[in-house]
Every structure is written in structure tokens, then in C-alpha cells.
Amino acid sequence: MKLQSLQRLIGVVMLSLVGTVGAQNYPTMPVKIYVPIPPGGAPDIAARVISQQLSEVLKQPIVVENKPGANGMIAGDAVAKSAPDGHTLLLTMDSTIVVNPHLFKKQPYNPQTDLIPIASIASNQFVLAINPALPVKSFDEFIEYAKKAKPPLYYASGGNGSQHHLTMELLKQRAGITLLHVPYKGGAAATVATVSGETSVMFAGSSNAGQIKSGKLRAIAVTSKSRTVDYPGVPAIAESYPGFESRIWLGLFAPSGTPSQTIERLRSELVKILKRPDVKERFNTAGGMDPFITTPEEFDDLMKNELEKYGRIVKYAHIKLD
Question: If you average pLDDT over residues 136-162, what whole number do you get?
Fold first, then answer.
């Protein structure tokens, strides 16, 4: 064997040994969790809940840092290009992973190849909510009313390409209705518009529970597979359109190349944390979320299926952001 080839082989073996030892000793310094939105949103809340618990078991400080902007790509890019040693992680919403690839022709990184999923963290569903002045009381009545409305009803979303937007486009496709899209800068502004009557309908998130309970918005359907304990009298859209589901989920990711031992250590500890009753209570109270525990295979299948699903929706609705 030539000397150069032998030296390269030795180098590869040494790097592998160093990586293995490093993974066994992980973590060796404070861990950063980047969040792609400003403080207060669901990913930020989830990151701060799990960071406290992880810090205790990993015996290292865990710092949550907000890096908002570019539909989550600023935070994603920072993590994708960081050292693959488990000390820089990304807690992000599903749209960063399964929607952005269809909205942007160019991204600074590839979410499918430059990031490794560690674990699913939390999830919730949307509620189809209408302004109570609309003369309908049920989901079926709404669909019939929307089909006949001239001009078409306006619907609010948290922005072009948002989950609110794509889920309504999916409903339009399945129900064969026409609705006019009014994008706002965030879910809060979309809620104000629907409560005021500027728009007639929206897909509301968990943060809108107060407006629904007070009667400022009327819940007529949920996007989960079946009815929920939060809205037991409200039907699932899947009851009328089988297979319809829009689950909002959060996940934790690491840079590609992070040692498998590190990924498994983090996943194992996170599963234990997410099973704790106090964590479930904090998720419910602070963000209206539920812990979302999956196997690695289930999480991979979910991301693959949703990448395909949202690709179809974006193509059907002709949505492009660049």
C-alpha cells in the first residue's frame, strides 16, 4: 500500500475514533437550540420547556437562541452549517422541513440532506373558525354557503405559504369551493381580521382558544383525524372528506454527520421528558400543544408523506414566494 493511501486510511480511522469518543462523552460544552421564530411562538415555548429538562440530564447549560426570518431558513442554515457534534440543534416547525422546499427554488441548505431528525416534539391541529355573523352553524352548512357565495368569501391566513394558507387550499381542493385569500403578517393579525369581519373564515391555531370560547369566533371543524377532547362537539373535516388531516408538528434536528450515538442519546432523553405529566401540562397551558412521541421510522415516514402532500398543494394552488 502506498504511503499516501496508508496515511489517508489512518486519518479516517483516527477521525472515526475521535468522533466515537466525543459522542460517548457528549455533551462537552453548552448546547445551543436555535428557534426560527421570535420569542413566544410554539417552537420557542417548546424549546424552553425541553431545554430546562435536558439541561438537568445532560449536565450542561442549554441556551435557546431565536433566529427568525426567511421562513425559518436563517435558523435552519445556521444549524445545517454548524459543527456536527450535537452542540448546535434546531427546534423548528414542520413548514421549515416539508413546505419550504416547494416554495423556494433556491435554499441555502437542503432540509432533507443537511439536517438529521432527532425526535418529534409536539403537535396540535387547526380549528376551522368563522366570524359568528356568518349565517351558518355547522361545517356542512359552511361548505354549501361557500359554494353559493357571490362574491366568494374571504379567508385570512398567517401569510403566503403558511400552514393556515396551505390547509385552506387543501380544503378548497377537496370541497370544490372558491375562497379568496387575504394573507396577513402572522396568525394574530389574521385572527383580528376574522373577528372584526374583515374576513369570514380562517384556520385558527391553539392560541385562538380564547376567542372561540368567548364566542368571537365559531369553531365548525377540526383538522385532526377525529374529534378532539378540546372541541368534543365539533366534527373533524375527515368525517366529510376521508383522509383530510393537517397536523402541525415541531421537531428537533441536528446537522448532518452528527454521530448516531449522540442522536440516540438525545432522542432517548427526549422521549422520557415528553412522557412527564408536568411537561404535558406546560405544553398544554403555554402553547396549546401536546407532546408528540414517534419512533424514528414513524417520524421519517411522516416527513416523507407530508413533503409529498404539501408539494401537491403548492402545485395545485400555484404558490411561489421567490
Answer: 94
